[in-house]
Amino acid sequence: MKTLTNPFFVEMEKGARKAEIELGIELIVKTAAQETSFEQQVSIVEDLVQNKRADALVIAPANAHHLIPAVRKARDAGIPVVIIDARLDATQLAVADLAGLPAIGVDNEKGAYLAVKALSAGIEVPTTAAILEGIRSAENAQARKQGAERAFSENTAIRVVASETANWKIDEAYEVTRKMFELHPGIGLLFAANDMMALGGLAILERQWAELGQGGRFRRLARNPTMVDQGKLSGYCRPALGGARLSRCSVCDSPAQGRKSAIRNADRCGAGQRAEVGPGLRLNIMTIKFAAPLAESARCSWVGGGCG
Question: d(Cα 49, Cα 94) in Å, to the nearest integer?
Fold first, then answer.
């Protein structure tokens, strides 16, 4: 996996452990120090392949490019590979003769689109917006940004004035949000591409609200998280924040379900069977107001490919 510093991947490991028990297999979990530890993740995979420590690999790539040579080495060694969470670059996979590598995850572009559509609903007066991006070389970060931009562009009252990466991290999001609001103090909408960055953005906004008192008028904030943690996030949304009006919109998938499915497919590949193509992982629109799935939800996913 990428790292255990993000609660999403903690939930992902829980799903993998359930599959371990159900399938009667031995599961080895390896993680890098940070989601930006690209080379460390490559080293982990190469070590598992070189020392023949695994009969199959399930990998959540930190970005779309670095791991492709290591996956090629696994294939050459006869080790099946299943990709989870974020896809590898399709063009580079084809060049490496890895087209059709099995992958399991959600449609990140559509998830971000649904989040921003819910966020921007009812906005009719001119409003500026900003985006907190994930790691720019990661496929899921690229897709979420594209989905957010598509939804924002469909409301003529909204203009995106800033889009910066915070690399999925809470501390970087704090600083990036602070700088964005210094440059564009009138920002009225903020989209964060994962829950950790949403928390970082909210922390700086809470500080600003405390300074502004009743003058605060930040309208809405959305996150497109991979795990909904309503308790932590709602702790930032206190009525004491003066006149500021905040509604949170989230799009969530199930990391545990995804990892469980990936482990099952890796086991099938190890037994010489094809990976299953299923309906995928469900996305739900959540709001702090309703705290339940809204009418519009989507079973939008990418699942498929032969055994890698």
Answer: 21
Query: In angstroms, rounded to a whole number, what is the distance separating the alpha carbons of residues 302 and 105?
Result: 6
Q: Cα-flanking dihedrals φ and ψ of residue 125, to 5°? A: -95, 155
Identity of residue 197:
M
Instruction: For the full predicted model, state whether its pTM sits above 0.85.
Output: no
Report the residue count for the chain: 308
CB count within 10 Å of CB 127 equals 18
SS3 188: strand
Q: In the numeric block, which tokens belong to residue 30?
A: 């390896």
Q: Is the Cβ–Cβ distance between 259 and 119 less than 8 Å?
A: no
- H helices of 158-214, in order, are 170-183, 195-212
Buried b (16+ CB within 10 A) or exposed e, 241-266: beebebebbbbbbbbbbbbbbbbbbb
Residues 6+ apart with CB under 8 A from 109: 143, 144, 146, 147, 150
Four-point Cα dihedral 268, 271, 274, 278, nearest 10: -10
Rounded to whole angstroms, the Cα distance separating 266 from 26 reads 12
Find out whether 183 and 122 touch, Cβ atoms under 8 Å.
Answer: no
For 174-192, the pLDDT digits (tens) are 999 999 999 998 898 999 9
Pair 301, 281: CB distance under 8 Å: yes
Other CB atoms within 10 Å distance of the CB of residue 293: 14
CB within 8 Å of 47: residues ≥ 6 apart: 53
pLDDT, one tens digit per residue, over 252-269 is 444 445 444 555 555 555
